[in-house]
Amino acid sequence: MDWPGIGQLALLVGLLTALTPLLGGYMARVFSGERVWLTPLLAPVERGALRLFGAEAERDQNWKRYGLSLLAFSAASWVVLYLILATQSIHPWNPQGLGAMPWDVNFNTTTSFVTNTNWQFYAGETTLSNFSQMAGLAVQNFVSAAVGIAVAIALIRGIVSRSGDSLGNFWRDLTRAILYILLPLSILATIFFISQGVIQNLSDYVRLTTLTGHEQVLGMGPNASQEAIKLIGTNGGGFFNVNSAMPFSNPSGLTNFVQVFLILLIPTALTATFGRMVGSRRQGWAIFAAMMALFLVAVVVVHLAESNGSPAQHLAGIAGGNMEGKETRFGISGSSLFAAVTTVASCGAVNAAMESLTGLGGAVPMANMMTGEVIFGGVGAGLYGMLMMVLLAVFLAGLMVGRTPEYLGKRIGAREVKLVAIAALATPLTMLAGSGLAMATKWGDPSIYNGGPQGFSETLYAYVSQAANNGSAFAGYTGFLQPNGDNVGAFGITFADLMGSAALFAGRFIPIIAILAVAGALAGKRVAPEGAGTFRTDNPTFVVLLIGVVLLVALLTFVPALLLGPIVQSLSEGLFA
Amino acid sequence: MNQAPTIFNPSTLATATLESVRKLDPRHVVKSPVMFVVEVSAVLITGIWVAQALGVSGSGVGDAPAWFSFTVAVLLWLTVLFANFAESVAEGRGKAQADALRSMRSDTQARMTDGTTRPAADLAQGDLVVVETGETIPGDGTIVEGIASVDESAITGESAPVIREAGGDRSAVTGGTRVLSDRIVVEITQQPGQSFLDRMIALIEGASRKKTPNEIALNILLAGLTIVFLAVVLTLAPFADYAGTPVSVVMLASLLIALIPTTIGALLPAIGIAGMDRLVRRNVLALSGRSVEASGDVDVLLLDKTGTITLGNRQAHEFVPMPGVSETDLAEAAQIASLADETPEGRSIVILAKQLGIREHDFGDAQPEFVPFTAETRMSGVDFAGNRLRKGAGDAILGWIESQGGRAPAELGPALERIAKDGGTPLAVSRDSQVLGVIHLKDVVKEGMSERFDQLRAMGIRTVMVTGDNPLTAAKIADEAGVDDFLAEATPEAKLELIRNEQSSGRMVAMTGDGTNDAPALAQADVGVAMNTGTQAAREAGNMVDLDSNPTKLIEIVEVGKQLLITRGALTTFSIANDVAKYFAILPAMFAATYALAGESEGPLASLNIMHLGTPESAILSALIFNALVIPALVPLALRGVSYRPVGATALLRRNLLIYGVGGLILPFVGIKLIDLIVHGIFGV
User: Fold this and answer.
1) Which of A433, A277, A294 has its CA nearest to residue A373?
2) CA-CA distance, B386 to B577, in Å (whole number)?
3) Non-local CB neighbours of B678 within 8 Å, separated by 6+ positions
4) Strand B544-546 and strand B527-531: pairing?
């Protein structure tokens, strides 16, 4: 790795490590109902918001009520967002007069934003009005992120609880996550981005004639505020089609660094929230360490692969690494770091073309997502996903110390193993099923742009990304065609849109419900006191074990697919049409 | 029942082989989801081979050659057979013991108190039967009349006869044992067909084996993994098609079987049966598999002081003379007073006095008159030649000499107190109205106990000594023995209370007991081990019975429980770790030609063929052969159990991860390569 790459990475790791206990502790206080410095300002707002949700917001909820509230809220979110996008033609703030997108693309887009994925078959500036962006997508960027955090907190409460079956209250957790965490951070980030030149306006698009005499249209809009929550909430859906590669979104090396920092900020800090709430900060750091180790490997591999280029490039006489699809202002180090960060966290924002990564460089983002997004992962989702891996590791290896496996004093029995298996395996199974169906039925073929292993990688990436609720893409795989450059005459590829939606739903809600059920099963269980025979989950041996389990589950599931996609690509000197 | 473990003796081997064929019945195989998938695949591939042999097939894309289908089918059937074999061998080890027991049970005639006889099998609860010298006791029951010496070697392996008598804690008798002397009347307590012997036979044969909670959880995980691999293999078909190198159904099925955790799936039942069997070999009978598993989780051991921690009896340790009395004088008086005392304490006093040089006494003409111990006087002694020697509890002797007009010396009180504080029992000795001194009776802690407790502590298990002694004495002995805690002046109620308290704070408790008043506590404990010498009530309340009636065995039981869980975990880890090597063996060979450039026979993935296996076919066959052979190879380990060391959990985990995790990664690389050398090099596949 080069020095800028190492320097950036070191600074990023240092900052995140320093902020983890601070922000993590703050979030623990927020969700434990303790007073924080924002309380005087926000408590009245919170009370007002909770009154909207009625009596249900007042009570303690068991896992079923918590889950039902969550599903009801997500369903309502889905309907509202679908209707907003479908009625775009009558919105205000629609400078281009854009009509609605086709129903199937709308279906996919709505599902994508409600599931905190932000997979985009569409291009923002040629498809959506500013009202759709602000009232539709940005709102979901906040609430879907808050839902993820709420589930993580509910799971922690289940692990900690010693009596009763309460997991807290969904409506309260949702409201607090938005008011105390996402909004303040987003406001700060927005101000910073505006100061760096990220646009924030409701102007008409700018038409200009370039030096070469071509006419060009520049999209305008309220971008800085969308950027902030896109990163902080690990949403990833760009205001513009090229996402964070766009100078209006990510103008400089400095903003690029702040972007990757913001993506990882909450996911890293949540490990400390976990440690605080279970009463042992070491437990939080152990999870942090496992995630960090996997993350560092990912960054280094992408960076080395991209600096090295591919055999086919070498054959063509291209030296100096692979700059295809990368912005020169970020270079290989800034682009590699972003590619790794956006896929370990289930963000999906991109500042370079993932499709143009080398075979091995492209395998890493896929592999990151194939872990089920547990390497920091999405806000909340990363922590609860990783805790499922922890339970899996505890069950597998816990037997080897000669006791019925237990985690933080709670015995892991048949019911927990069943639910953990569902939660941990639903996402990988969805990824395989989606790509398998698309390939086997040939219905996926119209979406594929390239031939050879790259075409397969596009398909695999699409379903992996959607099931993992990541949202980044090998851009070749499409579900939306716009012959006229806007919504006039545009049509969707129904299979890609609906199969993708199925992957989005399955990858989000099956794990969430199973995880809430795990929390419910653990809540109120007797806590076995710790002793010399207790399997420890806060020491280096366990961190190594956890890393091993995460890798093994991902590898065993995806080695054949990776071999036939990115790996064969990275070894091949051939060019594929 | 203590015969040496014979894993592979010819006759059990033959039976096990027959059994493994019988167990191909899908209704049996379906109990293990992993093995069921293997059997279904075996049927499928056999079907394909038959079709190929008949010339029907040939329609599908990339069909495998017929010889290959045949070989794979054989290997898959072998895999299922090996799994069945492992289970049968484990069961077979118990069968021999069960047969011996069954022969004892047959055709005993019961003689009823009314003079009629009927077959033992027809006895019902509440029947009264008479058993005399030389007769076999027809069923489980309680002696209601008489006393007898009973030969219980048939169930305990212990040849010395034991005394059984009506009333008290030694009233239970077991059907199938033989009365050696005297006559007893037994009230039958069993239901027909539910005798101790019947249950023992069923348990040993594994007939009444239910899956334990932990086994169920593990099975769910294995089923989950199987589903994932099923998805991997099913989706690999279209992926491979797209890449232009389609894979035949036989190949895909072979890959599936190589990947699913067949090793642990095959050995799981054997591990469970062997765990029970290991207990039986230690003469412990677990009444459910669940309790064996629970014993690995025990956090607290309640151990009775007497007989477990200390030798059964107190021993005279020193003589403490009062001022003006010489030690020999006191010793001599104590010895004479104890001559007729046949209790171990009494004998130890005589021995201690002898060590001080005091020999046998000649009473001459004086007719010594021995005064036995009674509950009222709480002292014993002897009257001879006008001397009245007494020994007994401090206050009893005090009362006695005061009634004789004597006075206790001022030093008596402190001496008594000191001994009590030291954990001993003081016995005062008096002659007429004079207190001569005090005998210090001491509890002797068994040798090696404190090391045992250190080991238990390393395992994370707390030991609590339970004793009827006063807290002062108890604390001293607890300290000397090195237990973590003690319950003094223990009543059955206090014991029950202690267990409940420990359990409510999340701990699992194990205890031993033999008396009827132990029954509630035995029932409450997570692992309750009843002594076989105990009452029927105690044996019913516990979930294990120790035929040797050795309370120290609790520690071994815990070890067996832990071993059982460790063996399951270790073989699961091994099984999953194996998959990495199998991928490396199979996939590069399978896709060696994928995306080959024009004019070349090998594509980019051939460079990953680091194992350099002969051909895709030989790679698959080698992996399958390894997969099948590893099952019988690991049967001895499954039966013996992974060795357990009482070190901390982390050290244990690190060790087992290295052996079974890392070992499981490496071993198949070597194994598959060697097999491939034979398959490819010698047979030319």
Assistant:
1) A294
2) 87
3) none
4) parallel
The mean-pLDDT minimum among A449-453, B36-40, B194-198 falls in: B194-198
Domain that holds residue A425: 380-560
Locate all alpha helices (DSSP H) within B407-541, ordered by sequence.
Answer: 412-421, 449-458, 471-481, 492-504, 519-524, 536-541
Coil, strand or helix at B345: helix
Query: Is A320 part of the contact surface with chain B (CB cutoff 8 Å)?
Result: no
Count other Cβ atoms within 10 Å, centred on residue B110.
25
Looking at the fold, whether A118 and A228 belong to one and the same domain comes out as: yes
Query: A273 and A385 in one domain?
Result: no
Domain boundary among A258, A279, A300: A279
- Rounded to whole angstroms, the Cα distance separating B84 from B64 reads 28
Shared domain check, A173 and A26: yes
Query: Residues A244, A250: contact at Cβ < 8 Å?
Result: yes
Threshold 0.80, pTM exceeds: yes
Asked whether residue A266 is assigned to any structural domain, the reply reads yes
Take residue A40 and report the two structure tokens written for it: 């005087």
- pLDDT tier at B54, thresholds 50, 70, 90: confident
Taking the CA of residue B501 and the nearest CA in chain A, the distance in Å comes to 13
Output the pLDDT for position B365. Answer: 66
A34-49 pLDDT, tens digit each: 999 999 999 999 999 9
**pLDDT (mean) for B640-645:** 87
Selecting from A417, A435, A568 the residue whose C-beta is nearest the C-beta of B604 gives: A568
Please name which of A527, A399, A533 lies closest in space to residue B456, comparing C-alpha atoms: A533
Name residue, tokens 């080695």: A559
Q: Is residue A309 part of a domain?
A: no
Q: Is A469 exposed, middle or buried, given 0-12, 13-18 or 19+ CB atoms closer than 10 A?
A: buried
Between chains, do B653 and A395 touch, taking CB under 8 Å as contact?
no
For residues A436 and A552, membership in a common domain is answered with: yes
Do residues A232 and A262 make contact, with C-beta atoms less than 8 angstroms apart? Answer: yes
Give the residue from A399, A534, A572 with the most B CB atoms within 10 Å of its CB, the best one to mutate: A399
pLDDT in tens, A236-251: 999 999 999 999 999 9
Query: Is B242 in Cβ contact with A456 (below 8 Å)?
Result: yes
Residues of A in contact with B231 (CB under 8 A): 429, 432-433, 436, 557
Q: Any chain A CB within 8 A of the CB of B235? A: yes
Determine contact, residues A257/A231, Cβ cutoff 8 Å: no
Q: Is B566 on the interface with A (CB under 8 A)?
A: yes
Q: Residue B7's pLDDT is what?
A: 52
Phi/psi for B128 (5° steps) reads: -110, 125
- Domain assignment of residue A365, yes or no: no
Residue B205 — pLDDT band, cuts 50, 70, 90?
low
The per-residue pLDDT for B363 is: 65
Cα within 13 Å of Cα(A298), Cβ side: 32
Enter the ipTM: 0.93
Partner-chain contact A414 B217, CB within 8 Å: yes
Q: How many residues does chain B have?
A: 685
Indicate the average pLDDT of chain B.
Answer: 84
Q: Which of A234, A255, A279 is the last residue of a domain?
A: A279
B514 counts as catalytic: no
Residues A389 and A538 in one domain: yes
**Together in a domain, A207 and A72:** yes
Q: Which of B217, B239, B576 sits opposite A560 (nearest CB)?
A: B239
A269 with A405, same domain: the answer is no
At residue A265, the pLDDT reads 97
Block residue for tokens 């303690």? A60
Residue A24 in domain:
yes
Which structure tokens are listed for A155? 């799971």
**Residues 376-435 (B) with a CB less than 8 A from some CB of A:** none
Q: How many domains does chain A have?
A: 2
Residue spans of chain A under pLDDT 50 = none
Q: For A217, which DSSP code? A: E
Same domain, yes or no: A275 and A384: no
